[in-house]
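Risk register update: the risk that structure generation would not scale has been downgraded. Supporting records follow, first protein first.
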Amino acid sequence: MNKSVVISGGSQGIGKALVKKFLAEQFTVYTCSRNQSKLDALAAELGSDRLHTFAADLSQKNQVLDFAAWVLKHTNQVDVLVNNTGVFIPGQIQNEAEDLLEKTIETNLYSAYHLTRALLPTFQAKKAGHIFSICSTASITAYTLGGSYCISKFALLGFSKVLREELKNQGIKVTAILPGATLTPSWDGVELPESRFIPADDVAQTIWSAYQMSPSTVLEEILIRPQLGDIDL
């Protein structure tokens, strides 16, 4: 039976690399993005009838639930969920914009919380599956310009840890991915060589490798850094 994966934020960066990887492994892929034109470009580039796209802003709970409902109209079996949607706006607690914390938490944390809850019954029904959340080195390291981003990513790692404890006796795996600086549009404009960054494809391959583990084994947390170390924010 063909397997399926749900990847939030799949039009660029790590999400796009994941879409390509799971399509190559013969999965049916359901993904979303706020930008319909980027989804159209993705579909045109990849040209696969196993790729299904949906325009949604996952910082909005109602749109998270709309995306989940759309997925469940297409399939009653989700084998893998990757909570990838995220936003990074540099700043400091002492001087960042007044509403930045709320916007960042809604995108980086609440989207994962609500999407996971909406799709979880499909995993529980078959007592199997794997849920990944794209955290960050900012989930374990406080950066000077991390501000609300660090707060949200610390919280997302906590979400993954709690979910792991809740689901480990139900046959459902939970893994937190903690990548350092990855070559994605978030770093556009930064004057550093590509060699200073993690390729997005390496993150996708890591997730695939973690998924391939036997049913009795789970990689709970995976920390990935550039060979030369973190890039200071």
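Supporting record for the second protein:
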Amino acid sequence: MTIGEGTGRIAVTGASGLLGSKLAFRLAAAGAQQRLVVRDAARAPRLPDGDPLPDTDVAVVRGYEDAPAMVEAFSGTQTVVLVSAREDAQRVAQHRAAVDAAVAAGVEQIVYVSFVGADPDATFTFARDHWHTEVYVQATGLRHTFLRDNLYHRALALMVGPDGVLRGPGGDGRVASVSHDDVADVATAVLLDDDPGRHDGVAYDVTGPEAISLAEVAELLSAATGRRITYYPETLDEAYRSRAGFGASAFEVDGWVSSYTSIAAGELAHVSDVVERFTQRRGQSFSEWLDDYPDEWAHLRG
């Protein structure tokens, strides 16, 4: 992919994470100038020989709420890729702080990694955070694009307990989960487009190529691991009871449980053509992801 004529330096937040690092490598391969925003410089993506990525510098900040450091990190950049923060009761406030820093730094554009069905009344409680963030970004008047990802394939594998049971109140619902690779490819296409303005004000649903049930997820994991993995469709009461001993906050537990109830409600079943449109290839299915990333689910082999 070539760089669009109007592309300036790109700041990638969360660049040491799975999505941020994949995006950083893709931008570097395309010759884009970028700034990697990380908490720890030692964890910033680097070439296999240990050298920094070409045309890349690193900014270290303690977190999105570290306003002075965020303003400094964004200064001199044209676009900020705002990879959403980890689930937290203060996540919207953290996002707003990062957006404020982008405005103060004179950034022209924000590309925000959101979630499908972002809405104030979404069943999935974490999707409500994304809606509030989107509204805040829109109010800045900056150019903006929202990448609304579905659940990641990796998340489905992590839903399985040590006993080999994927349990949750997902009913017979289906989920069009997506790979980190496909999201990174779509983000790269948006950022380096020869006509970047065509993405202004647009929200893209980024999904996998098919919607599968949680029972099918268990079957695919069983085939991959050689171990019997099952799906147990909990009731809502059972879901809260089974998670009561995790020591998590009510905010976290509500998010975990509602990720399943949103599947049951059909809110994560829509399959979009965004990956195919932006990459000219079919997106990666869950079964294909299992083949390509065995280390990500190796813990399930038992």
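The chain has a mean pLDDT of 96. On this basis the risk owner (M.S.) recommends closing the item.
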